[in-house]
Amino acid sequence: MTEAELLNDYDPAAFERPSVTVDLVLLGLLEGRPAALLLQRDHHPFAGLWALPGGFVRIDEALDDAAERILREKAGIGAAHLEQLYSFGAVKRDPRMRIITVAYLALLEERAFAEALKATPSLLPAIIDVPWSGETGGPVETMGPNGEALALAFDHSDILAMAILRLRGKLDYSDVGFALLPDRFTLRRLQDVHEAILGVPLNKPAFRRRMLDKGWITATGDRQEGTSFRPAELYRFNRPL
Amino acid sequence: MTEAELLNDYDPAAFERPSVTVDLVLLGLLEGRPAALLLQRDHHPFAGLWALPGGFVRIDEALDDAAERILREKAGIGAAHLEQLYSFGAVKRDPRMRIITVAYLALLEERAFAEALKATPSLLPAIIDVPWSGETGGPVETMGPNGEALALAFDHSDILAMAILRLRGKLDYSDVGFALLPDRFTLRRLQDVHEAILGVPLNKPAFRRRMLDKGWITATGDRQEGTSFRPAELYRFNRPL
DNA sequence: TTGACTTATATGCAATACGCATCTATCTAA
DNA sequence: TTAGATAGATGCGTATTGCATATAAGTCAA
């Protein structure tokens, strides 16, 4: 029996324990580009820099429950697409003490994004600038509303990069694309979402056919209103994939 | 400022901390099927049941480093494809105390799989029986060498299911398929690996064309030896994808 | 009322990817 | 020399996708 197993069986408290937090990537679209909601830090460390909303995982709280609670507390949102992203555990990622964070990705449709901003005015929507294409990966930059670069605290830039990577990878075999849209949407809006996430323009007829052939969406028969041109038909996502 | 932020800034120790462990899915192929190396538990809880090798994350050790250390300690393996899989954080997943585990996936080629068994004879290679197809997801079962069902401890069955899901998802756009093969391999062996992971037979000519067209592999000019039939050409994986 | 303008939606066509059957090549063993 | 087994190549029909282009359906201004 190894040392770890011995201690595991008889005295698990012998290991000094790290703190565990959950950080949220509250992701929506702004001006047709992916954007995350950030908070400016008041105190050391990284005072003045921008950070993902997060909080400690309580001792009697599951990871997923902690993510939901923080989503409610920090964004004032009851429900959203929420999935675990990745766990970040470098020793010095927080200079004060050992903190392991489990990052979650929350996808907010336009309305939920706006409501979060209203519920928590200190949140800043920051456009995520992704300088790489495909699923290469690499660093990302963040821009404030005036186009100014925002410096991120901790390893939160890595977390954002991981969020984009995950979204791109899952976009065409999962429902993440629909999580950023309201219940009813036009095919053009759906394509806008895909283009925003992938960062490349897509071919319109091909995109339409693909979406319709996959059987993911159903035409409602209703049409868009308030346009000054031919109104597009509204579609609905067929919930269970 | 929320309660969590206040404590975060002034007294992070105020939160009772969970223990954090790393569990490894040591995955290889056995009789052309995916298999994981398991340890039988001696003590409560789940005494007699089978578990993934794991250990506590040390306070001055990064998550990735902990995974590498445990890989060395438990499997006697220096290097292998190692990637973080998912973090499991249900409150009662360990009945004794709150333990959050970060699962890692280690892919072992045939030789490394055998060496791990030799280095740690208590490890049992268990075939993973995946009753679902594609990336549906769902529970998996494990079988010992004599075909007997193995009961798994904790939520380790969920972790295995996640490992299969991850492998299937990444198989044809990443290098995971090659991590289960030695440096030089035949196209037939590569196809065997893909079939084992996906759980379905594949079309031979189509598979060949696809692998060669992707430019992932290079013919060495050398040929397989010791066959009683036409020897296949050996290929090599072009490291950087 | 009509025509310009804008976007939605449909269609035709070429290039590509893929499943499948089949054919040829190359080794061992008897 | 031949049978048996597996490697490797080829031809073909079908589905998918990119791209250009045509048609449909609204608003709006003259």
Characterize the structure shown:
- The structure is a homodimer of 241-residue chains.
- By secondary structure, chain A is α+β, with helices and mostly antiparallel strands.
- The first copy, chain A, folds into 2 domains: 18-170, Nucleoside Triphosphate Pyrophosphohydrolase; 181-237, Winged helix-like DNA-binding domain superfamily/Winged helix DNA-binding domain (Arc Repressor Mutant, subunit A, Orthogonal Bundle), CATH 1.10.10.
- In chain A, 30% of the residues lie in helices and 28% in strands.
- In chain A, strands 1, 2, 3, 4, 5, 6, 7, 8 and 9 form a 9-stranded mixed beta sheet that branches.
- In chain A, a hairpin with a 5-residue loop joins strand 8 and strand 9.
- The longest helix of chain A is centred in the last third of the chain and has 15 residues, at 156-170.
- The relative contact order of chain A is 0.15.
- The model of chain A is unreliable at 1-10 (pLDDT under 50).
- At the A-B interface, helix 1, strand 4, helix 2, strand 5 and strand 6 of A face helix 1, helix 2, strand 5 and strand 6 of B.
- The first copy, chain A, binds a DNA duplex (30 and 30 nucleotides) through helix 7.
Biggest sheet overview of chain A: 9 strands, mixed
> What share of the residues of chain A lie within helices?
25-40%
- Gyration radius of chain A, rounded: 20 Å
Contiguous low-pLDDT stretches of chain A (5 residues minimum) are 1-10
**CATH hierarchy: architecture of the largest domain in chain A:** Alpha-Beta Complex
